[in-house]
Structure formats: C-alpha cells, structure tokens
From TrEMBL:
Lineage: Bacteria, Pseudomonadati, Pseudomonadota, Alphaproteobacteria, Hyphomicrobiales
Protein name: Uncharacterized SAM-binding protein YcdF, DUF218 family
GO biological process: Gram-negative-bacterium-type cell wall biogenesis; peptidoglycan metabolic process
CDD domains cross-referenced by the UniProt entry: YdcF-like (cd06259)
Annotated source species: Xaviernesmea oryzae
Residue numbers spanned by region Disordered: 1-22
UniProt KW Membrane keyword: yes
One GO term describing the cellular component: plasma membrane
Length: 242
C-alpha cells in the first residue's frame, strides 16, 4: 500500500512505544538504583549542611552580660557548670537555683565543698534534683520545678555544645517559659581549629547526632520517655540543698 492509498484509520492503532528496555527487569533496577543514589547524596548533603549550621551555632554562643531572670537552672555534667550557676545566683541573676540531674549518692555538702560555695547561699536559695537521668529528664525535672515556683523566665546553664539540645527539650516540655541560654565555654572554639581536634570533633558530631534524632522524633511524633528515675514527670523531686 502506497502512502497515497493509506486511510486515516490505517495507523490509528499504532501507539508510541516506550524506549526498549525501560520496563525490563534490568531497566527497573537501574532506575531504582539511580533514585537511591540520588536520595543518599541528598541526605548526606543535608546532614553535612546541618552539621555546619550546628557547629556555627555552637561556636557563636556567648554568655550574655548583665542578664537577669526569675531563676537559674544548671544541667549537671561537670562542676564548672555548677560553679558558673552559683556565681550567677550570688550576683543576683536569679532568685533561686536548681541543680538538675544530680546523682543520688551526691550530697549537697559535697557539691558545696567542691564548688566552694557559701553555706548561707546554699541553705537559702539552692535546690537539688536527683530524678533526671538524661537531657529529657532534665527538661521534665526543670519544668515541674518552674511550675512549682511560678517562674516565667529562667537562665539555662550548660556547656555550649549541649545548649541547643537542652533548649530543644526544655521548650518541648514547657513552651510557655522563657529560657535564656547561658553557655559554659571551656575553650573558645572560634579561636582554634576545633575540627582538627579529634576529641572536640567527636563530641560535636555526637551532640549533633542527638539533636538530629530529637528533631526527627518530634517530627515523626514518636513518644519520648520521661527520662526520670521515678518515671513520673509530675511528681516534685527537687529539694532544698540545706
């Protein structure tokens, strides 16, 4: 049949054919592999970019001058943090101090002697919480202490690398209270090549990983534990140091 003899219906049933091999088993596997590789590269880029943001945020943290709040809380993890918090209390930056997450075997007198704090200051204005076992527990222990005393603004004292996760958990547990960061800076990360120090880099990566997991947990809606020895985030456990 010549082209001149063809009728309009002669090619009507001829449908465009997909490229050969597109829907073959091998073709599907190649398509899936490319998508998996692209997704992996994207995830790596996002994680790397997030770490750069985290590192910049941590290294940029500075203790505010002349700051005041209703109260002060310090998350245990080193006596330097407690010393800074007691110094803020002594200078009138807050009315009262909670030391959150103390080990049950640690006595108030031991803390006072190691930090060389005034006995009168300890007896007057320091509470110690023994119930928190992790950062989530710190947030719950601190939140119930805040509500027991009716505070509206609180200074948060912890290490600079630990501050972002601490604030995340605190604001998750208590979105009403104003939490003011007061980072404890052991060394000025802005003046050293911290990324070349294996110990510092390991700490930063570990803390960043915890921030990522905490964020994903909240996005997905996974229920977090109480982080408390009692398993109850409403029972008051902090008690005066005296």
């Amino acid at each position: 049949m010549t082209p001149a003899q063809m009728t309009p219906d002669d090619g009507a049933d001829r449908k465009p054919q997909p490229p050969k091999g597109l829907f073959s088993r091998q073709g599907r596997l190649r398509w899936i592999a490319r998508r998996v590789i692209m997704a992996g590269v994207l995830c790596i880029a996002l994680l790397f970019g997030g770490f750069l943001w985290f590192a910049n945020a941590v290294t940029s943290l500075k203790a505010p001058d002349g700051v005041k709040a209703d109260a002060i809380v310090v998350l245990t993890g080193g006596y330097l943090r407690i010393e800074q918090a007691l110094g803020l209390l002594r200078d009138g930056a807050g009315q009262r101090l909670l030391i959150s997450g103390a080990h049950p075997s640690t006595t108030p007198n031991q803390i006072r002697k190691v930090t060389q704090a005034s006995p009168d200051l300890f007896a007057c204005c320091v509470d110690i919480g023994y119930d928190a076992i992790d950062t989530i527990g710190n947030a719950n222990e601190i939140t119930r202490w805040i509500h027991d005393h009716g505070y509206k603004s609180v200074l948060v004292v912890t290490n600079n690398y630990h501050m972002l996760r601490s604030l995340h958990e605190l604001r998750r547990a208590d979105p009403v209270t104003e939490f003011i960061a007061y980072p404890v800076i052991n060394s000025d990360l802005t003046r050293k090549a911290w990324f070349a120090d294996p110990d510092v880099l390991r700490t930063m990566l570990a803390e960043y990983g915890k921030v990522v997991l905490a964020t994903l947990r909240d996005w997905v809606g996974i229920e977090r534990g109480t982080g408390l020895r009692t398993g109850n985030d409403t029972k008051t456990a902090a008690r005066p140091a005296s």
